[in-house]
Each structure stands twice: as structure tokens, then as C-alpha cells.
Amino acid sequence: MVLNENDSMFVLNPTKEEKSNDIDDNLVSKIEELIRLRKSISLDLKSIAGATKISTHQLKNIESFKFDKLPPHPMRESFIDQYCEQIQKAKRAS
To answer: Which CATH class name applies to 25-93?
Structure first.
């Protein structure tokens, strides 16, 4: 899931035609937006890692758009969803 302009979420559903190396421009822009939001509310990757049990290394891969370094689908989708959910929860709490 990724936040859109209205802070609502959409589900990331990769299609069979998508190659794992291809990065959807929309996904890139949403993750860039989430990175800015995460930093603006002073949320560090260690906090997200603690809440999700996803390593900071994998979270850095998400933020660096290195999706090929993430586990295969469906874990990749789950990692990205959890990353997004934690940022949204932190934003609501701030």
C-alpha cells in the first residue's frame, strides 16, 4: 500500500506482465513522498523495523527502489505494505 495525495492508501498489485526490475513511475513517486513524510515526522527506519520485524537493510532497499533485492512476491508486497502502514500510523499519531 502506498499513500496518495489525500493520505489514503492504494494496494500495490503487481501484474504478471511486470518484470521485477521494472519500477513503476507511480510507485517511485509514492515512495519518494513517503520518504519525505517519514523524515518530516522524524520517524527512523529502526522504529519501522521494530514494529514490522523487517530489517532496516530491507527497508533501505525499499527506499532505494532496489526491489530486486527484496524477497519475491508476495513477501515483497507485504514488506512495502507494512512500511507504508507504519508511516501512516506515525503520521496520525503526530
So the answer is: mainly alpha
